[in-house]
Amino acid sequence: MEIMRLVVTGPVGAGKSTFIRSVSEIEVVDTDRRATDDALLIKKRTTVAFDFGRLQFGPDMALHLYGTPGQSRFDFMWDILIQKAHAYILLVAAHRPHEFREARRIMTFMKQRSPSPMIIGLTHTDCSGAWDAANIALALGYPDPTRRPPIVAVNANETASVAQAVISLVQFTWAGSLAPTT
Amino acid sequence: MTVTGYLADFSLPELFQLVEQGNKTGLLTICTLTDPTTIARHNHHIWLSQGQIVAAGNSLDQQGLMRLIAQRGWMGDRAVSRLAQTCQIHTPLGLCLKNQGVLTAEQLKLLFYTQVMRQVCALFALPDGWFQFDPKAPLPVSEMTGLIATATDVTLSGLRALKDWNALDEKLPDPSSALISVVESKPSLRLNPNEWQVWEFTNGTMAIKDIAQQLNLPVAKAQQIAFRLIVTGLAEEMPMVAAPPPAAFELAAPTPLEQGFATTVTADAAGAAPVSQSFLQNLVGFLKGKV
Question: Is A181 inside a domain boundary?
């Protein structure tokens, strides 16, 4: 069985679990538990180990999606998951500037731990107070538009949008390997 | 695009880092929300050109610099106003008055210090405030001395002088995090001795609390220095991995399914096995069917 592992990471409430649920063909295996402390302000339940989703698209080909816990006290799981990842997507809620620094912390961690390629997925871009991609890129530490990972808007609730984000991640990661498809 | 938000969410040092790294030109307005029970709100305006601070004031009447000159007793309001009319259209008022021999370079520096450094640095202590950055606002030459300060310099000065860190408490890096340098060589900024000492540990291997112990500094002080290094673009906070304490999960016993996946992830050899080109093409083709 050939397997690709993609990691979905980002701060609490960025939409990681929803993202995986939207595209997984199996019931997502989650480790959501009742949120405590700060996470409770954003949602009632939060992932404490990881989410797992799967997409089989051939007799011996499957995509595995792993969602990291958003709270940094579970950051040992970030390490375990990123070490095995082919690529990862950092989800950032565009309407929560409060979380941009946390997203930056997670990204710094991931970049130190793994050379895997990444893209940035912006969720909640249609919400009031949402920042645009250029300013979020700056807030995440990417002042040069020519030297930053691709940034895509994604609606974690919509399968089509999530599928498009995964395509973007795959195409960016293996830009040289993919022949044009019709 | 206009950027709006609250300082409690995105602090002033972070904002300054953003406008400087983005080379932004425009007007940053901060509306204080210090006491919700009163309707008294104060607006603070900071004008930027290419990411550098060129002027600041509390009103948009274009009279702020003239008032400062008058307050110093160097010239009367009306005299400055008359002279201002003779200035070339894009010349900052301060520079124009200096060229006319009305103000000296030292006086100009003092004006800039009062207008920008003192006023802006005071804003770092604001517990909250609504902000808006308008990239379309024109630069007000009548408020400008002609001197500039990088947002980084203002941040560094303001945070060094800050006595009450309550407003920024939540923004400070975690004591258990490490720092990692994001510049290739030594910083060109003029750091103070404590900042240099902390800078020496920006290799991602030592937690801030341990750095504090090593340097005989209070942990809070080390966090504040680390924050300064972060918002001036010299370092990034990096969480350090703690060993997974089983009790810390606060979970019911994991299901066999959870255990199975955990084993799958952790037991394999490190790194990800390469995938074939046909795999990639099949995957993209399959996903395109869902778009």
Answer: no
Please say whether the beta carbons of B275 and A4 come within 8 A: yes
Spell out the domain ranges in chain B: 3-161, 172-238
3-state secondary structure (DSSP) of residue B231: helix
Segment A96-111, tens digit of pLDDT: 999 999 999 999 999 9
* Weakest-pLDDT range from B25-29, B96-100, B265-269: B265-269
CATH number at residue A84: 3.40.50.300
Between chains, do A2 and B257 touch, taking CB under 8 Å as contact?
no
Q: What is the DSSP string of B95-134?
A: HHHHHTTSS-HHHHHHHHIIIIIIHHHHGGG-S-EEEEEE
Go through A38-62 and write b for each residue having 16 or more CB atoms within 10 A of its CB, e for each that does not: ebeebeeebbbbbbbbbbebeeebb
Q: Taking a C-beta distance cutoff of 8 angstroms, is the pair B78, B51 a contact?
A: no
At A159-170, the pLDDT tens digits run 999 999 999 999
Examine residue A99 and state whether it is found in any structural domain, yes or no: yes
DSSP A126: T
For A52, the domain range is 2-173
Report CB contact under 8 Å: A72, B174.
yes
Per DSSP, the three-state class of A51 is strand
Query: Given an 8 Å threshold on Cβ–Cβ distance, is A177 in contact with B277?
Result: yes
| Residue A146 within any structural domain of the chain | yes
Distance from CA of B291 to the nearest CA of A (A): 4
Question: Does A179 reside within a domain?
Answer: no
Closest to B244 measured CA to CA, from B268, B262, B264, B269: B262
Name the fold adopted by B172-238. Arc Repressor Mutant, subunit A (1.10.10)
Per-residue pLDDT reduced to its tens digit, B24-38:
999 999 998 766 555
Q: Is B1's CB within 8 Å of A135's CB?
A: yes
Q: Is A124 on the interface with B (CB under 8 A)?
A: no
Does any CB of chain A come closer than 8 Å to the CB of residue B284? yes
State how far the Cα of A149 lies from the Cα of B83, in Å rounded to an integer: 52
Q: Where are the beta strands (DSSP E) in chain B?
A: 3-6, 26-32, 43-49, 52-57, 129-134, 149-150, 178-181, 203-207, 235-238
